[in-house]
Amino acid sequence: MSQTSLDDDELFGEAANEMRDDVEASLAEAREALPEAEAVWDVDADNTLGVLNALKTALDAGDAEDHLRDAKKWYTMGERADAFEDADDLAEEIETVAELVEDVEDAREQVGDLTATIPQLRSTLESFEDAPDADTDADAEEAEA
After folding, report:
1. Residue whose C-alpha is closest to residue 56's, from 117, 97, 113
2. What angle do CA 101, 102, 104 make, to 5 degrees?
3. pLDDT at 128 over 70
4. Which residues form a coiled coil (predicted)?
5. pTM of structure
6. Are 64 and 34 in contact (CB under 8 A)?
7. Sequence-separated (6 or more) residues with CB below 8 Å from residue 33
8. Secondary structure class of 26 (helix, strand, coil)
9. Residue 2 has pLDDT above 60, yes or no
10. Phi and psi (nearest 5°) for 81?
């Protein structure tokens, strides 16, 4: 084998290690960008809408999706180049983080829906409470007759 082949193999091995490091670093950054459990659980607000707004803010995945995308990009490149000897752990970690990011985003969307619905529901309930009772009106009409 020529010196050039050895150098190329060595460079390829270094590049493969760097790709793996990049995937692992991006996954760590994605995990770090996810909300903390306590921030989602403990909120401080005066009313339901305040709680929902605080929860929606806490459920912001931040840059987690961008970091996950980077991890997937480097993983895909390494896989296609057959650069990884054993990448099952990386694939599992990517899947785990992707599911967690999706769960956070789904929860944020659901809270957002509630945040939009609750004020209208409150207004409708207040209108209903303030409206004259239909039975009282019917009783008054019968009494007049």
Report:
1. 113
2. 65
3. yes
4. 87-117
5. 0.77
6. yes
7. 61, 62, 63, 64, 67
8. helix
9. no
10. -85, 0
